[in-house]
Amino acid sequence: MTATRKLVLTAAMFVVALGLVGLAAATHVVAPLFAAWAPLLAVPYLLTRPEPGETLGDEQPAATTDPGSQADEGGPASEDATEPAAEEATESGPSPEPS
Predict the structure, then answer these.
(1) Rounded Cα gap, residues 56 and 91, in angstroms
(2) Residue 43 CB partners (closer than 8 Å, separation 6+)
(3) DSSP class of residue 25?
């Protein structure tokens, strides 16, 4: 069921419930009020129902990569490995100039 169809059916359920409340107000009879909650109970079921191809717990986990494997391939991990060495040189002060 598409999101648009879910929205339309949810709106229709609320219209039915409000129609029953309006009927009770117009006729001064309380019986329709006892039935007005029935369509509203269907709304949570309707909104939480999974899509046709979707099953609970069947989600594919995101592909994770091992940082060590990126270092072997020359990926971003290899760039990160060179940064701490550059920081160490700047922390110890300026390097002496060769004479």
Answers:
(1) 52
(2) 10, 13, 14
(3) H
CA–CA distance from 88 to each of 77, 84, 92, 98 (Å)?
Answer: 18, 6, 6, 19
Query: Cα separation of 31 and 25, whole Å?
Result: 11
Which residue do the tokens 């760039």 mark?
79
> What is the C-alpha to C-alpha distance for residues 49 and 32, in angstroms, rounded to an integer?
28
User: Which residue is associated with the tokens 């999101």?
Assistant: 3
Q: Which residues contact 81 (CB under 8 A, 6 or more apart)?
A: 71
Q: Note the pLDDT tens digit of each residue in 50-71.
A: 877 766 665 555 555 655 555 5
Q: pLDDT, tens digit, for every residue of 5-53?
A: 999 999 999 999 999 999 999 999 999 999 999 999 999 998 898 877 7
